[in-house]
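Why should sequence recovery work at all? Because a backbone constrains its sequence more than one might expect. Tight turns favour small or flexible residues, buried strands favour hydrophobic ones, and helices have their own preferences. The token representation captures these environments compactly. In the example below, the structure is given first.
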């Protein structure tokens, strides 16, 4: 295991959270690689009661009398958590599961059920994957989303059974061998096992009169299976271990991970009885995670961009509806993924329209001197610094927002911007105008769009 440096510490806090200030990076750096990862992983040991109290005081989940809970309210509730939590990995994993088990309010309708699902993801964020699958299978929002409330004896609805294998566990084909993982008959038999899994009064209800108690043959095993039996069969399969390992490696490390990395993580998954804490810990300690290939290998999702920018700016911001609107225009509306497969991510986050929204969002934050959106004071990012030249200031802010590996030409262009009216002098006026402008330019660099 190689030495742990500030670039790697910043990388860890971006991938296992939403970015960090230089002071937070320094604190993590002192822990060393293993200590830093364990600090993030064992978040249950971190007191986050101050955030919980502040969140409750916002009253997001208490609509005016006679009005239903709104989608913006639960979005603001979650964004507030991501902005202020001392447990960033818990929220990052909640975001991962939201995309993995993509469920949309557009069909579920009930904001309360969507919120309940979000709390499920948070509670089991690094728990046992088998337990997660059983709980998701019983989750009312998921039951509505994939029509298992219409899955009855004699007329099985196969929607949930299909997606359970295709998107949630094994994938259509094995990610290493390319061999098919299941047949249409396996989907049918699995659907029979989940008959009668429905909801009543907003909660999971097992309707025994609509459950098929007959013998089923699923993935080569035969028995009078119910839904939990199907999960038990799926969770232990090598194909599931590979599928989940690849997806987590792509989320945390880089796209298209090598087969040997997938197999390594799959072994951890199986040897630790599907424990996600063990899997994620292993990934965050891998040399591949800190490799040159991994650094800035992923494109920031709108959520990562918004939360990370506010946190790194040390801005005082609330999840105003302007932020929700910007995220929607960036093509990520929390609690409303576009399909059951979630967001495509990667290069799909970037097009001419979404880039303009990203740039305008950055400008809105950097230029905010108070108001409903945010308050940003660039002096907070200059505290304790003894900077006098344009070169020093540019290097400082490239470090604050990365450290960003920009070209010599880009660095010089930023220096020239500060010196455009003559040799730059740091004072109250230039901080409020030129330094804000410099920060906006950095936040619009291609390098800043990368995670």
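From this structural description, the recovered sequence reads:
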């Amino acid at each position: 295991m190689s030495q742990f440096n500030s670039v790697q510490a910043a990388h860890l806090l971006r991938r296992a959270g939403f970015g960090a200030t230089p002071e937070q990076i320094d604190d993590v750096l002192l822990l060393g690689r293993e200590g830093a990862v364990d600090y993030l992983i064992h978040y249950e040991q971190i007191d986050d009661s101050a955030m919980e109290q502040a969140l409750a005081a916002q009253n997001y989940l208490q609509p005016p009398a006679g009005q239903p809970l709104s989608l913006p309210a639960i979005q603001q509730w979650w964004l507030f958590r991501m902005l202020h939590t001392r447990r960033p990995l818990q929220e990052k994993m909640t975001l991962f599961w939201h995309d993995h088990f993509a469920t949309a309010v557009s069909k579920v309708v009930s904001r309360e059920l969507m919120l309940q699902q979000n709390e499920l993801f948070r509670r089991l964020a690094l728990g046992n994957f088998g337990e997660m699958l059983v709980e998701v299978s019983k989750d009312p929002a998921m039951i509505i989303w994939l029509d298992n409330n219409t899955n009855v004896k004699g007329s099985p609805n196969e929607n949930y059974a299909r997606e359970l294998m295709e998107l949630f566990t094994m994938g259509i084909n094995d990610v290493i061998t390319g061999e098919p993982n299941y047949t249409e008959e396996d989907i049918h038999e699995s659907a029979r096992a989940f008959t009668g899994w429905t909801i009543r009064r907003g909660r999971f209800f097992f309707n025994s009169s609509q459950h098929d108690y007959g013998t089923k043959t699923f993935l080569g095993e035969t028995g009078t299976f119910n839904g939990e039996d199907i999960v038990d069969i799926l969770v232990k399969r090598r194909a599931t271990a590979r599928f989940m390992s690849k997806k987590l490696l792509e989320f945390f490390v880089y796209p298209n991970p090598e087969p040997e990395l997938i197999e390594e993580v799959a072994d951890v998954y199986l040897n630790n009885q599907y424990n996600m804490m063990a899997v994620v810990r292993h990934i965050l300690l891998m040399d591949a995670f800190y490799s040159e290939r991994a650094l800035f290998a992923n494109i920031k999702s709108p959520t990562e961009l918004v939360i990370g920018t506010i946190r790194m700016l040390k801005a005082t911001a609330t999840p105003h509806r302007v932020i929700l609107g910007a995220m929607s225009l960036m093509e990520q509306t929390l609690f409303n993924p576009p399909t059951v497969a979630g967001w495509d991510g990667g290069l799909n986050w970037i097009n001419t329209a979404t880039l303009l929204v990203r740039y305008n969002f950055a400008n809105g934050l950097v230029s905010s001197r108070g108001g409903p959106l945010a308050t940003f004071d660039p002096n907070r990012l200059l505290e304790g610094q003894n900077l006098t030249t344009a070169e020093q200031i540019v290097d400082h802010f490239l470090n604050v927002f990365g450290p960003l590996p920009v070209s010599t030409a880009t660095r010089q262009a930023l220096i020239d911007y500060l010196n455009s009216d003559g040799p730059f002098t740091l004072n109250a006026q230039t901080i409020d105008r030129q330094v804000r402008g410099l920060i906006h330019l950095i936040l619009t660099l291609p390098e800043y769009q990368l995670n």
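A few observations help interpret the result. DSSP finds 22 helices and six strands in the chain.
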